[in-house]
Amino acid sequence: MSLTDKIKTRAFELGxxxxxxxxxxxxxxxxxxxxxxxxxxAGEMEYLHRHFEKKKDPRNLLPGARSVISLGIxxxxxxxxxxxxxxxxxxxxxxxxxxxxxxxxxxxxLKNLLTFMKSEVGREIQGKAYVDTGPILEREAAxxxxxxxxxxxxxxxxxxxxxWFFLAEILVDVELEYNETPIKDRCGKxxxxxxxxxxxxxxxxxxxxxxxxxxxxxIELKGSIPEDLRPxxxxxxxxxxxxxxxxxxxxxxxxxxxxxxxxxxxxLSAAPDLLSLMELSDVEFQERFKHSPIKRAKRSGFxxxxxxxxxxxxxxxxxxxxAVLTQALRDSEPSVMESLK
Length: 341
Description:
With 341 residues, this protein is α+β, with helices and mostly antiparallel strands. The protein has two domains: 3-79 and 96-172, no CATH class; 192-248 and 265-338, no CATH class. Helices cover 36% and strands 12% of the residues. The protein contains 16 helices and ten strands. It has helices at residues 3-13, 30-38, 46-50, 82-85, 102-121, 138-144, 192-196, 214-220, 230-233, 242-245, 266-270, 274-277, 282-288, 298-315, 322-330, 334-338, and strands spanning 18-23, 67-74, 92-93, 127-130, 149-150, 156-157, 165-172, 202-204, 207-208, 236-238. The protein has a four-stranded antiparallel sheet, sandwiched between helices. Strand 5 (149-150) and strand 6 form a beta hairpin. Helix 1 runs antiparallel to helix 5 (102-121). The chain is globular. The protein starts with a helix and ends with a helix. 41% of the residues are buried.
């Protein structure tokens, strides 16, 4: 087998289901990205502005890079029953955060693959691996490698896996075979994702205003959630899968073989009881979510989201227990009590 074929075979053995290889070259979507930043759609994510110059060319990250190996791994597990999803006393958490932190799981696989490549090349090679953290336009790289197309919901969509997959990249100073071609857009006239977005964050096909996106509001935003958007959050307390749930390309999603992405206690992890979450101390939060992507929101942000969901629950005709209000009032984070208003 050629080196490229060996790399792909090893990637599949490690659990990756999608592999695409493209040349390291200047990015073609950088102008679209620049306009997106200028329009303020990045919200408070200032690091996206700081990293802009690096994203113009992957060789800014690894001088001498010749190839970009894009990889995708399925994280679909199961669908939450509608009666649980509609239960306003439960908090809905995005599917990607049900199991262990995907960064840790995928980084181990990337390290293994890079070590394998070094042994196969027979010389010292330079390489860098990223999982959702590097300043690289990863969707473009994956599209160049034939993994999928840009969906109207701004996710990358693969005709077999839909959009339930994590992306990762390895940059290497080795020239490989680039026989893939970008997959053409297959969204057609469908606008289900745009129509279903609870906050109208998809302001146009392929364009997301992060400032209105529930994923941004519940994870990236550090201050108070705008009052006009709180009722639209419903019982979402971390992330949002609505635009993926309604996508026709996800109808035939198959469960992942990576057990680390599965929740330890199904609905307890996917749709926990809101009242119980409000009782979490900082130590309890750290212990419960130390191996979870949820820790990124920190206790302050997570309980702020829970408070908003409880406020929506109360507005739907329920009565919050006095103990919850008392506890929120005493909380060290002002945004927790403020979010119950």
